Amino acid sequence: MARERLRALLVRAAWSAALLALLLLAVEGGSFLALRALAWRARSMPLAPRAMAAYRQYPWAEAFWREQKRQLSLEYHPFGLWRSRPFSGETINVDAEGVRLTLHSRCEPGDARAWLFGGSSMWGFGSPDAETIPSLLAKRYAEAGRPVCAVNYGEDSWRAAQGVVKLTLELQRAARRPDVVVFLNGCNDLFTPFFLTGRADREWDFALAKPWLDDLVTRRYGSLAFLRAANTLTLAQRVATRLKGPAAWPRPSDPERLGAEVAEDFFRQIGAVDALARGYGFRYAFFWQPLAVTGSKRMTAEEQEGIQRQLGLSYDLARTAAASTHPLIRARPRSNLHDLAGLFDGHAGSVYIDACHFLPEGNRLIADRMYEVLEGRGPARR
What we know:
single chain; Rossmann fold; 5-stranded parallel sheet; two-stranded antiparallel sheet
């Protein structure tokens, strides 16, 4: 009798477990479908900058923003670097190495070689291949009758540190070394520590990637780390975020100290490039980019809207980040460092898409100043 009761109990337990498993599978499947529906809805909506009046003059704008929406995808490369996935379109083209196409670039045996590094501002968010900073700089050289082989190594969210790592790797494998190396930095060097990591020596996705990488060591003993990637948890987190509404990034406990660390780290990257330049025999120039939270440009209405859209409740923190860091960078003049923070001062039209990214006109102004500096015709610092 006891055996029959035990058997019945086990059968009920098995059925309960099976029903629970089916329920969990149904919830997970439903969450998967919901996430796919949300992704489809997001893909069908244009990126907000598309509505800027400044883009109405460009016949390529519709195709570009459609492609920019599809192109926003990264993949990991060796030594902790991430690069854009290969992409082929009318206005955006990225090769198998994650390098965006640079127009007006000529790579014949006798042509000078220019490598350009930076974040999405250098990569060219908001502009087609022909209107990125590297393309416009190459155009200036081509118009002067001295074409250059310009390579755009800029990438989304890269700080100077990522650029230095990439430069080192490319120098080791290049059949021909560059004649000049150009860095454009500022946005990610400021906002990544102040918004995302709280320190100057962390990449933006370190906190997300570390648990998964650490888990690889112990996975053969059993792991539940996969639960963090469950569709149900992901959907629940998205719903919770939506219900909470927008929130500001947490403010660092000591902004002045963090600003000093950011500036010191930036100068360490310049020192590393200086050593590489002496060892490999190339010229280099660092440019601190214009930011909407520095300088004294009077913003147009659409610029103000884009800045607010990007920074939201963290606008004051962005101002604090700039105020805590930029003066320290200006206070240490170097012949290879050029401060473009005030480049747009006095410019009446729109040049900013948001706090960090530029319309083609902004890219042109930066490329022109780079050309002047590299050719010894522009100011060294401002």
